[in-house]
């Protein structure tokens, strides 16, 4: 029989956070091995649960959640998002500017599908969250990666960003706080990005899913609050700040210069209608989450679980010879660098395979985040302190052996 091939549109699409190395980990688990998974920010599996008032509110309202909602979502949670935008100083947002989705991921793909024609370009950070590169490619566009500078706290290199703008460039993606580096961008940098967008008539797609997951008293500025003459699409949701990954409750906000974007917004409305609506139980959690006690503050405090585990992971990784890491100011991840002289890695996916096979620890290789060199990896610091100490100890033991084998 003739083989049935996947679509050619998928030729440039990959998502290594759930890629081949994870498939190997699953196989090992089926064989009876216990794997320490540091590959994904799935908080519930580490015992970090959503606020109880969210759970209880969903339970109480579940009997009335069987029907479709408006294609953009229920009024009350969308109104709650409007109020949240006001708290973040994003001006001019109405309920009609808010779209609820099955997580921010669905809305990211929707926003790019509505925007891009064949060959259009989008500026993406390197390293990036790989969904963006995949979604641009799947939408017929061309992902163009601007460098984030590790020596400058992983801030975007504005000169590199500027140099990569062409007549085909349609948008700039800004992930702040950043996944995978944990960087948090200052207002001065955000204003430079806004100015680039203003000069070249570009849309800014702002991923702010970790805007409350901040450390050391840091504060977050929504880039959409810094101008009203640029079109902004801002993504957020409950997955991380409210530890509700599986509820798939996210939102997208259109703000700024909307007058010249009527046709694009019509495209968003068409795509929102085609998927009928976001899941209703997840929508029901949004208003309660945004209006309730912000328990994330307890977790990110210096004495909180996430705060302590971030510090622990940073200290343990920094003690390993040839490993350096920028201490994250936000999010749930670290993106350590391996000294190429001490660790001459040619294929970082193979490196991740070998770590998994020898030490039963699952990480994601740096090239999985469209980083250009095989000298980084990402890990989450979500396991409790004892498990985190064990996991990084295994990584240290593996790297010690790796250095000796390649000396």
Spell out the blueprint of helices and strands:
Layout: H1 20-30, E1 36-37, H2 52-61, H3 75-87, E2 98-102, H4 103-115, E3 121-126, H5 130-138, E4 142-149, E5 155-156, H6 158-163, E6 169-175, H7 187-200, E7 203-207, E8 231-237, E9 249-256, H8 262-274, H9 280-291, H10 296-300, H11 305-318, E10 323-324, E11 333-334, E12 337-338, H12 348-359, E13 361-362, E14 364-365, E15 377-380, H13 385-405
Parallel strand pairs: 1-13, 3-4, 3-6, 6-7, 7-8
Antiparallel strand pairs: 2-9, 4-5, 8-9, 10-12, 11-15, 14-15
Q: What this model shows, in words?
A:
There is one protein chain. This protein is an alpha/beta fold and 407 residues long. 38% of the residues lie in helices and 16% in strands. The protein has 13 helices and 15 strands. It has helices at residues 20-30, 52-61, 75-87, 103-115, 130-138, 158-163, 187-200, 262-274, 280-291, 296-300, 305-318, 348-359, 385-405; strands spanning 36-37, 98-102, 121-126, 142-149, 155-156, 169-175, 203-207, 231-237, 249-256, 323-324, 333-334, 337-338, 361-362, 364-365, 377-380. Strands 2-9-8-7-6-3-4-5 form an 8-stranded mixed β-sheet. A 3-stranded antiparallel β-sheet has the order 11-15-14. The mean pLDDT is 95.
């Amino acid at each position: 029989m003739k083989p049935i091939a996947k679509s050619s549109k998928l030729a440039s699409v990959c998502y290594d956070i759930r890629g081949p190395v994870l498939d190997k980990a699953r196989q090992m688990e089926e064989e009876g091995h216990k794997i320490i998974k540091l590959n994904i920010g799935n908080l519930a599996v580490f015992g970090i649960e959503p606020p109880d008032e969210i759970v209880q509110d969903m339970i109480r309202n579940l009997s009335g959640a069987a029907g479709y909602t408006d294609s953009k979502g229920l009024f009350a949670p969308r109104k709650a998002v409007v109020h949240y935008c006001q708290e973040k100083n994003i001006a001019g947002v109405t309920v009609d500017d808010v779209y609820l989705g099955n997580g921010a991921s669905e809305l990211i793909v929707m926003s790019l599908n509505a925007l891009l024609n064949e060959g259009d370009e989008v500026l993406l950070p390197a390293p990036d969250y790989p969904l963006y590169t995949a979604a641009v490619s799947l939408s017929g566009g061309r992902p163009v990666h601007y460098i984030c500078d590790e020596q400058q706290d992983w801030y975007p290199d504005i000169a590199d960003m500027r140099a990569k703008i062409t007549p085909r460039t349609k948008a700039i993606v800004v992930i702040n706080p950043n996944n995978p580096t944990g960087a948090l961008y200052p207002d001065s940098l955000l204003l430079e990005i806004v100015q680039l967008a203003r000069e070249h008539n570009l849309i800014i797609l702002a991923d702010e899913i970790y805007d409350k997951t901040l450390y050391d008293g840091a504060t977050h500025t929504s880039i959409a609050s810094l101008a009203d003459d640029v079109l902004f699409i801002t993504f957020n949701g409950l997955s991380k700040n409210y530890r509700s990954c599986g509820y798939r409750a996210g939102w997208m906000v259109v703000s700024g210069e909307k007058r010249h974007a009527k046709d694009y917004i019509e495209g968003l409305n068409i795509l929102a209608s085609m998927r009928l609506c976001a899941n209703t139980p997840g929508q029901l959690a949004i208003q309660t989450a945004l209006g309730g006690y912000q328990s994330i503050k307890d977790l990110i405090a210096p004495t909180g679980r996430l705060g302590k585990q971030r510090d622990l992971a940073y200290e343990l990784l920094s003690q390993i010879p040839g490993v350096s890491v920028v201490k994250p100011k936000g999010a749930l991840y670290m993106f350590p660098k391996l000294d190429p002289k001490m660790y001459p890695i040619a294929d970082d996916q193979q490196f991740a395979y070998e770590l998994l096979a020898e030490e039963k620890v699952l990480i994601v290789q740096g090239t999985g985040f469209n980083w250009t060199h095989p000298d980084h990896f990402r890990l989450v610091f979500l396991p409790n302190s004892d498990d985190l100490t064990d996991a990084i100890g295994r990584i240290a033991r593996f790297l010690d052996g790796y250095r000796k084998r390649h000396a």
